[in-house]
């Protein structure tokens, strides 16, 4: 798997950067050029540990988590992680794998608005208006290979992902454009990796308080996943900020 290119850390923390161009790499970030107009920006220390632990405590205690039933190959199964959905009023409904989550209001969760503001400060050109939260209670919880390419996000969507708690691996692999070869929500990524020899792949270890931004053609040309990790013995909460068009 390929390594990321490091932009030297100049001492900025909590997303601080003198660079206001959202298309440039920001100081302290690791930029990975995936080619063909796709790239990843990764900040291992987007938020301070103190803030990150405070947010994790809030998320575990105050978010109305649910573990819904989804459909995989037409069959119902329980999604292997907890979820919650926040969105600005009046947006198009989100639907995936036969599941339509209820949209909660930003006003009900002020800390989530605080985090959203932090993301917008780091990437001034972004205008996120929805948030899908995922909670992985143990290493048995995962998300299979998929792309966030729903039509409601438009072409070339930016997606900002912030992680709290247990470190987990985030994998990317080149999309084959065959639905049967990877885009399976209910199948553990570890099974697919064994069938993907020769396919270009990247791996990121998502740290507590980190931010990973996917942009350009990433959702069109790449699949991503968070595989099972039996040694991951504690909870991870992930926030994915998106813009519904």
From TrEMBL:
One of its GO terms (biological process) is DNA alkylation repair. Gene3D superfamilies: Alpha-ketoglutarate-dependent dioxygenase AlkB-like (2.60.120.590). SUPFAM superfamilies: Clavaminate synthase-like. Residues 127-245 form the Fe2OG dioxygenase domain. One of its GO terms (molecular function) is broad specificity oxidative DNA demethylase activity. It comes from the Eukaryota. PROSITE patterns: FE2OG_OXY. Residues 1-30 are annotated as: Disordered. 2-oxoglutarate binds at residues 134, 136, 146, 224, 236, 240, 242. Residues 1-24 have a biased composition (Polar residues). Substrate binds at residues 73-75, 149. PANTHER family: ALPHA-KETOGLUTARATE-DEPENDENT DIOXYGENASE ALKB HOMOLOG 2, DNA OXIDATIVE DEMETHYLASE ALKBH2. Belongs to the alkB family. This is Fe2OG dioxygenase domain-containing protein. The lineage of its organism: Eukaryota, Viridiplantae, Streptophyta, Embryophyta, Tracheophyta.
């Amino acid at each position: 798997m390929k390594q990321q290119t490091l932009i030297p850390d100049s001492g900025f923390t909590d997303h601080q950067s003198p660079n206001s161009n959202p298309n440039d790499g920001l100081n302290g970030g690791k930029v990975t050029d995936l080619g063909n107009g796709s790239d990843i920006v990764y900040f291992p220390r987007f938020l301070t540990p103190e803030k990150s632990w405070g947010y994790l405590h809030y998320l575990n205690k105050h978010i109305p988590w649910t573990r819904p039933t989804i459909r995989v190959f037409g069959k119902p199964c329980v999604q292997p992680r907890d979820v919650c959905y926040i969105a600005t009023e009046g947006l198009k409904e989100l639907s995936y794998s036969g599941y339509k989550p209820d949209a909660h209001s930003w006003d009900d969760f002020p800390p989530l608005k605080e985090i959203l503001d932090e993301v917008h400060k780091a990437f001034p050109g972004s205008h996120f208006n929805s948030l899908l939260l995922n909670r992985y209670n143990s290493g048995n919880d995962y998300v299979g290979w998929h792309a966030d390419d729903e039509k409601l996000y438009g072409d070339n969507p930016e997606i900002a992902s912030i992680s709290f708690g247990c470190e987990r691996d985030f994998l990317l692999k080149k999309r084959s454009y065959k639905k049967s070869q990877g885009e399976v929500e209910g199948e553990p990524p570890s099974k697919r990796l064994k069938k993907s020899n020769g396919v270009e792949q990247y791996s990121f270890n998502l740290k507590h308080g980190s931010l990973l931004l996917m942009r350009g053609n990433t959702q069109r040309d790449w699949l991503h996943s968070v595989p099972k990790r039996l040694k991951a013995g504690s909870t991870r909460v992930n926030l994915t900020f998106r813009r519904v068009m």
